[in-house]
Amino acid sequence: MMKNIKVQIISIFILSIIAAGCTETIDNIQLDSTRPRLVVEGYISTDTTRQMVRLSKLGDALKKDPVQVISNALITISDGTTTFGLTEDQTRKGTYFTSPDVFGVAGRTYTLLIKNVDINNDQVMEEYTAQSLLKRLNPIDSIHLVYNTSNPDFKSWSVNLYSLDPGEGRNFYLLKVRKNNILLTDSVFKYSIADNYSFEGKYFDGFPVYSIREDRKTEKLTPGDTVTLEMYGITEDYYSFIYSYIADYYPKVPIFSGPSANIPTNIKPIEDAVGVFAAYSIKRKSVIYK
Amino acid sequence: MIIKTRLIILSLLFIILEVPVWAAEDQPAGLLTISGYVKDAESGESLIGATISVRELNKGTAANQYGFYSVSLKPANYILEFRYIGYQIIQKTINLNKDITINIELVPEEKKIAEVVIMADRPEANVKKAEMSISKLEMKTIKQVPALMGEVDVLKVIQMLPGVQSTAEGTSGFSVRGGGNDQNLILLDEATVYNASHLMGFFSVFNNDAVRDVKLYKGDIPANYGGRLSSVLDVRMKEGNNKKFAATGGIGLISSRLTLEGPIGNEKTSFLLAGRRTYADLFFPLMSDSSLKKSKLYFYDLNLKINHQINDRNRLYLSAYTGRDLFGQKGSSDAGFGNLTGTLRWNHLISNKLFSNLSAVVARYDYSLKMKQGGSNYVWNSDMLDYTLKLDFNYFPNPQNEIKFGISSTFHDFNPADAYIEGERSRLGAAVPKNYALEHGLYISNEQKIGDKLTVKYGLRYTVFQNIGTATVYTFAKGYPNYSVTDTTYYASGKVFHTYMGLEPRLGINYTFNEESSLKASFSRTIQNMQLASNSSGGMPLDVWFPSGPNIKPQKANQYAIGYFRNFANNTIETSIESYYKQMYDVIDFKDNAQLLMNPRMEGDIRSGTAKAYGVELFVKKNSGRLNGWISYTLSKVRRTIAEINNGNPYPTTYDKPHNINVIVNYEFSNRVILSGNWVYATGAPITFPVGSYVIDNTYGKYYSARNGYRMRDYHRLDLSLTLKGKEHPGKKWEGEWVFSMYNAYGRHNDWMINFVQDSKDVTKVVAERWYLPFVFFPGITYNFKF
Q1: How much is the ipTM here?
Q2: pTM, to two decimals
């Protein structure tokens, strides 16, 4: 659970360096292109809902061209006994949904199968697969808001978590925060992630998850606002994916950053695809700001 | 293999234990010994490397690191010449009919012209000495090189030597002949300095006023050094003036320094105390920015040295260093990191031909971070601590041979990360368990002159590295993207659970054609058991060291080098061409997107393989005259091949810069006005660029080229400085000089990093952004003084 703290401490170092740096845009930088690859974003959760898979094609490095979605794919998600088919949403091409009554079950391994895709236009249809274990998760006992004035630039409300880690080995968490049901952590780089190393089977006794900042218009709390914490029990693969994605999103600094590298994927064949398929449990708890 | 190794150990032990006994006895060949110390007449400082020549025999020797020399000759009359660059030569006529001691004090020459830029011990030393791939820097040279903000720095000058690359602009990190920043052993009075950087690397830990001697071994590393693959940077602190009280200091834009030195009681004891502190943060409270008002950002250094001559045969030296960077914001964060070293040495003259030194060394690097979040104070500490005991001997049996041998043992105590919530007994967890290791070294070497033209230097180092409990060792199964832990083994306190042993032969040959030219060749094998968890190009304060062990093998390197050395114009112009080939084994790198900090299973993120580096180094320097300086050109290539990185294909490291030119020029208009300039050119550093893009949950993701598949633009920069010295008067005690400097004098925006970020004008698009350091046309001014 120290990951959050670690990331913040490192960011102090990085920000001090960034503050010292100057930037200028490079016009006409010459970048190579690479062969086509399938981009997959797919999830199945314990919520009873329309489970989603989104398909697109790898774009150019500078995003000069619009994203090319992949239509007409044949997609299924299976837990070994039951197979759910997904159909393409005709208003959002490239996005596929199950029926709204589908939910995942903790302890089961889900397999994503994608067919009828010819990403490299060689007239041969390819097949992509991915697997993810849906991990068990204990409920959130409570969440507390703690006022934080330690940063002179902004005051904030820290959303603190109280919950028991299930133990049974390493567990990984994704934590999202909503205000009045609007997701504040609406992008990967805003996600908060943690693991249970050295906390295995122990109680998270007020672990700070997210700072709701008063200087941000969309975040500033007013009496009556509902703050919801969503805790996702995720796999190590998905954790690594998010960790790498966040690290890659921020600018690199020579003193601190390792070499740029592709985000690991669990979509196979890995040389022909990028993205993620994740199964997870979700638990929620809300508190009203008075 | 084990029996063979034990035999070697026993043989070496025999040599170590027996040689002092027979060496201390009178020599059988009827030779008599002249021995003593060579010192500076003004300060009493030992003159390391001063040469002692026997004119009649055209032979001689050099003073060791404590200024001691010994030469054994047949009874006769001789003329001895004592030399040290920048000092007047002393000749002594002796009638050698018994062992004699001659302690010499050399007087500095009156400065007529600017001093040499890289010091040679005598004009033709670069040609005659068997050693190659070595650079020795003199502090007054370093002080003349234009520097960022006027803060001259040892490591920044090191980066301008042939075969040495800066890992990134502004940082103290350096790469030697294709080696990594982690492969350099940095010693301060024999204590390892694990992180030589201040302020993220813009400054190094070395206070020039406290440093006497700097040597960089790029290859051909003597057998008495071990533990790193690519280089040894041996920094020796001044001993302290034992003749008179003296003070040296400087006042600069961002820091000031003061060094005090003098005798304690009589000439037998002297001290040196040096301090330095930056003070930009003292102005923060005056700033309007609220976060700056509460900010803290500075570093300091303290050096202390005391030496005492017990008698003619025994001397004691105590040296200590502490330095720390401190930064944070009042009420929210607090951080600090720094080194602490201490060395106690006892020089003992067993006989006139056998010199010994016993050192007890302690070295510590630590960092401490504290952060307030969610109503709690989170604390994260890390440190590593070494205790070393070392015994070295120099034996001078005759003018043809100089034998060195010794033994050392180091206890390493690693505490990679200790994290907890302040005020709570329940820890957040040890984060990463502590571990321990013992590292032993045993060596013997000889520099042997064969005839007038050939000198052979050969040595052998034997290293033993033992992991000891308590320890937690994971067994990993390969996988993608992460290795999984299949088993965990716990070892009890004090149990040696894993051992690595290795032999490191070293060989050097010098064939001297004449007084002005020679051909040299060398081979060295080096082994590195200490590993650095860092995959950034520059190295950062949070990097931790960890030992080789069951999962990580020690790194090894074989380096072959050949060089031709030629002097011109009565040795005032030195030239050399050296070529090297270095093959490295079990070098480590980190998997893509590795997590190195506070990761107990970090060894599962390490990948190892091979690397090879080769290159040619050209060097021309002019030692004297109003116009002096050096030009170096390095042509080099380095590639790593590691399975699971870059699909197993070879890739260039970030410090692979095929063409590197360094020019340093000093011009003395008069005794009081010196203009200096340096120009640096290097091929752009390799970098990984995106070749594709995608979006996951509203966030831009990049698909990358092969590792380091692109290069940044070529790097070049000109720095200038002007030194104005005060007038000299007979008897004037105060000497002052102003140094005006201009860093990046033609204002080039060199690529520091290239990032791909969302276009601020159109967030659906991405642009490439050049990051450059703000040090453009950057002035500096320093006032230096001494009295």
Answers
A1: 0.91
A2: 0.88
